[in-house]
Amino acid sequence: MKKKLIALLSIIVICMVTLTGCYSAEGLEILAYVVAIGIDKGETDEIRLSLQIAKLSGDAGSSGGGSSQSQESTITTVDCASIDSGIALVNSYISKKINLSHCKAIIISEELAYEGVSEYICTLVNNLEVRPNCNIIISRCRASDYLDNSKPTLESISARYYEFTLNSSEYTGYTENVTLDNFYIDMMSTTNQAHAILGGINADKTHRSHSNMEPYDIEGSYKADETPIKTETGIENMGIAVFSGDKLVGELTGMESLCHLLVVNKFESASIAVPNPYDIDSVLSLYVTYDKCPKTSVKLVNGTPYIECDISLTANILSLDEDLNYSDKNTLNIIEQYTNSYLEKCLSSYLYKTSKEYKSDIANFGKHVLNNYPTWNNWIESDWLYNYENAFFTVNVDTTIESGQLYTKM
User: Fold this and answer.
1) Which of 63, 70, 194 is nearest to 122 (CA)?
2) Which of 20, 34, 221, 338 is the least buried, fewest Cβ under 10 Å from its Cβ?
3) Pick from 188, 215, 210: nearest CA to 121
4) pLDDT tens per residue, range 139-173
């Protein structure tokens, strides 16, 4: 009995020791959670680092000058030599320790992106706190201004705010949800180039008229900071930033971004406007989804890439005209032909823009020709990323049109 009692006491002591909290554990009360990082060219040093820090319930926020504050977050900005040195400087100033584990968005100014971003991307990828699924946004304004203008109307500033904002790509197609890990992989790849979300500020001075454009070109012709939307939300994400290596080389509009998603099999659904074959002054609104997965083939003829894309879609007519009989097969066939022709034109324009103007394969066509090269050295010597500018394209779109409701001509 004495031995059993000693054994029981020993077990109790061991459990008490092992279940004791860690002395060095960091609690919520001593951590400052960054939800977004902004990187600009510095004025007094290499870069200007901006950290948007969420204010926890009952938190008084960071104290002192050098930061602008909103109801739900505070933004601290510092000129520094590197991201790590900037964080160290901020840690010496605020009352809590910076933590990046909840960072959801990394915003890099367009001005800095044109000069190259590899140093900053590699630094963030190497940081154990930064999650690989945080988004990469290239801002057409200063990154610090982008953060200052983050004014959510339906939720508070948090990691989920940026996540929900960028999820709109799933039902609009006007941008792509690009993450840090995907951007880094594409930047280092030999088969394709990197791209990122295009962001900007929604302000009265950036609204401009597109009255001289065809009605079916207006909706998708915008980039971030150009849309006519008037809202309390200060930022907008529309379009794609195109890179060659680690340098920004151009931008795609909302419609061009939708075409990109169609080609790379990342399209979910969208409402688009196409020419009305029965009225040149109006458009038809269609709700479009995939009918089949897109097919891509790449052939090399005397070293020149010939790329063919076959895209099958299903579309529902959203805008009905009382003068048209949507139960008539001939009417639907004519609308299908116009839709196919319009989308083929848009897709070809997007593809040739990336090839001839930007010289950047962001659709990863290079992966389709890897098996043409028996060794890695042969592949590297082929220099696909350079050869892509010589590519020619054929686009085939097959759309099945359905009326938006059970509509019968009486």
Assistant:
1) 194
2) 20
3) 188
4) 999 999 999 887 665 555 555 667 666 666 677 78
Q: Which two tokens stand for residue 267?
A: 């399209």
CA distance 109 to 10: 61
DSSP states along 182-229: HHHHHHH-SS---EEEEEEE--GGG----TTS-HHHHTTS--TT----
Model confidence over 12-68: pLDDT tens digits? 656 655 555 444 445 557 888 999 999 999 988 899 999 999 876 555 444 434 444
Separation of alpha carbons 5 and 15, rounded Å: 15
**For helices 329-352 and 254-263, angle between their N-to-C axes, nearest 10 degrees:** 100
CA–CA separation, 169 and 301 (whole Å): 36
Please list the residues that pair with 321 across neighbouring strands. Answer: none
Q: What's the pLDDT band for 355 if we cut at 50, 70, 90?
A: very high
State the amino acid at position 168 in one-letter form.
Answer: S
Per domain, the residue ranges of the chain are: 29-253, 269-410
Residue type, position 154, single letter: L
Q: Give the DSSP letter of residue 291.
A: S
CATH class of 269-410: alpha beta
Pairing between strand 392-403 and 304-317? parallel
How crowded is residue 336: how many other Cβ atoms within 10 Å of its Cβ?
18
Strands 97-99 and 304-317, sheet pairing: unpaired
Contacts 24+ apart (CB under 8 A), 346-350: 346/255, 346/256, 346/259, 347/259, 347/262, 347/263, 347/309, 347/311, 347/395, 347/397, 348/393, 348/395, 349/256, 349/259, 350/252, 350/256, 350/259, 350/260, 350/263
Separation between Cα atoms, residue 401 and residue 288, nearest integer Å: 9
> Cβ distance 141 to 200 under 8 Å?
yes
Q: How far apart are CA 113 and CA 134, in angstroms?
A: 18
